[in-house]
User: What shape does this take?
Amino acid sequence: MALMITDECINCDVCEPECPNDAIYMGEAIYEIDPHKCTECVGHFDEPQCVQICPVACIPINPAHVESRETLMQKYERLTATKAALPQPPSAPSAGV
Ligand code: SF4
Ligand code: SF4
Assistant: This one.
């Protein structure tokens, strides 16, 4: 399942950098979760990191995106494959040679 952020969000900014899939972003008024990127942290962590850290517990399951653990793992594999396919930044030149 993907998770979602409700309007109880206080925009405290702490969840966004914790997401391993870059699924959390600032929406029009509050933070939002891209359901196509959220794997409920499957593949990265045992527990959803945003839920762990949110001080007001406003991140429930998104009822519009109910997915099995297997589907979430497939999503994780797709996301990491996409990331790996991106061009890597050139490595820094070695100094003093
Ligand atoms: Fe990101 Fe994990 Fe939260 Fe989903 S559950 S939004 S993958 S931190
Ligand atoms: Fe909103 Fe919770 Fe994220 Fe803070 S941690 S920005 S309250 S969803």
Notes: Residues 16-83 form a domain with the Alpha-Beta Plaits fold (CATH 3.30.70.20). The pocket of iron/sulfur cluster (ligand 1) is lined by residues 3, 18-19, 21, 23-24, 33, 38-41, 48-50 (CB under 6 Å). The CA atoms of residues 19 and 49 lie 7 Å apart.
